[in-house]
Amino acid sequence: MRLRTRITAIFVLLTALLLLGVFTFIFLFSGFYTQREFQVRMEGRLFQLATELETTPGVLTTSGRVSTPGLTPNQQPALPEEAVGVYPVPSRPDMARIVTNQGLPDAFTRDLLAGGTAAWEQGGRYYRGTLLDLSQGETLLLLSARDTYGLNKQRNLLNLLILAYALSLACLLLLGEYFATQALSPINRIIRKVQSIRAGNLDDRLEVGRGKDELAELAGTFNNMLDRLEIAFDQQSRFINNASHELRNPLTAILGLTEVGQARQRDAASYRELLRDIEREAQRLDHLVDGLLQLAQTGESGKGFTAVPFRMDEIAMEIKEAMTVSGPGGRIRLDLEELPEDARGITLTGSPTLFKVALGNIVENACKYSGNEPVQLRVLNDGNDILILVADKGIGIPSGELTNIFEPFYRGSNVRSSRGYGFGLPMAYRIIRLHHGDIRISSQPGKGTLVTIRVPNLQGQRGLA
């Protein structure tokens, strides 16, 4: 069921129930008021009849019926289908017999004996009775009538309410459909606009307007999503272009070397030289492919690795030891003087292998571009966070290029002559983000670079859960 249909159905249903309750109340209140009004009229009529009986002699026949025409006074019109009976009551058993002969229950007799008056209604006919102490003795005055006018009025009111209810339902259906369409029209415009956006027009945006309602928030949310999609598409396009360019260079070199080798007959030494060149370019291609695979595996989702607790100082020591074996490790100054007494302050849950790759890339870059100057690696605790500081006194990074250093394949203008592919920092950034951390770089060309890594420790990670 479409949303517009559901909104219309709910609106009509709720309003119909409300109208049904209102109309029912009107009908019942009108019936109660009509009945009460007729009862008041009967009481007035009974009072006037009793007054005439007390003031007019000789009104009884031997049968107990009213014999004097003046018993119906001018001041009070006769009631519909009115019947009046005046009965002498020699004894209480005679009164019970008289009441029973009129088809009235024993409760009517008990009310007469208890209070001198009684009222009853059965079959749409109303009965009123009162005991009078006349000169002829105790007398029962019995009045009955049918509220024909009230019944017709209630019947007409019921027909009118049914007709009004049916017309109201029809109007509610039309109004509900109209208002649901008007309420959903902005959403329909958003849907049509979003459906029209393709890869070729990702720069299009939804009109937010000046309102601050939920629809404006929805349009703003879509625009934010489109901003992220546009950035992602741009990054993907740049990544593909850069990757194609980087992969094409060693492939072109390999093809060129094979063509040179096939161009003419050579001696064994020349062929060995060509093979060494081909091997070097193939290794370069292998490094590129391996870097691309690692970069793809360190996405934002955090899937693909098992999180275990590990200590950051141990990671730092392993990196220094690995760097010492490969060459520049002797220039790394590892500072662990500010470690907390509680090891949990420098322990986090994640992938030690991935984090070692991230921190290793940063330290390796610092060693590579710092000449023979030492690189300082510090690990310390800062409340719920672990701080890792990597400082060098190398060539630095131009200030205008700091915003681009985490993009794959990007290399600073002052290091493009050095060997590298632009994988290290983007990979480190993604790994640190996987561990809910943050990395900041401050640098001055010719003076050095400071890399600050902040990741939550065990206590901080519990706060993120």
Features of the shown structure:
465 residues, alpha+beta, Heat Shock Protein 90, four-stranded antiparallel beta sheet, 10 helices, 16% strand, elongated
Structure overview:
The chain is of the alpha+beta class and 465 residues long. It folds into 3 domains: 3-152, no CATH class; 214-297, Signal transduction histidine kinase, dimerisation/phosphotransfer (DHp) domain (Helix Hairpins), CATH 1.10.287.130; 308-464, Heat Shock Protein 90. Helices cover 54% and strands 16% of the residues. The chain has helices at 3-55, 92-101, 106-115, 148-196, 214-263, 268-297, 312-326, 352-368, 424-434, 458-464; strands spanning 83-88, 117-122, 125-134, 137-146, 308-311, 332-335, 347-350, 375-382, 385-392, 438-444, 448-456. The strands form 3 sheets. The chain has a 5-stranded mixed sheet. Strand 3 (125-134) and strand 4 (137-146) form a beta hairpin. Helix 8 (352-368) runs antiparallel to helix 9. The longest helix has 53 residues, at 3-55. The radius of gyration is 51 Å and the shape is elongated. The protein starts with a helix and ends with a helix. Residues 60-76 have low confidence and may be disordered.
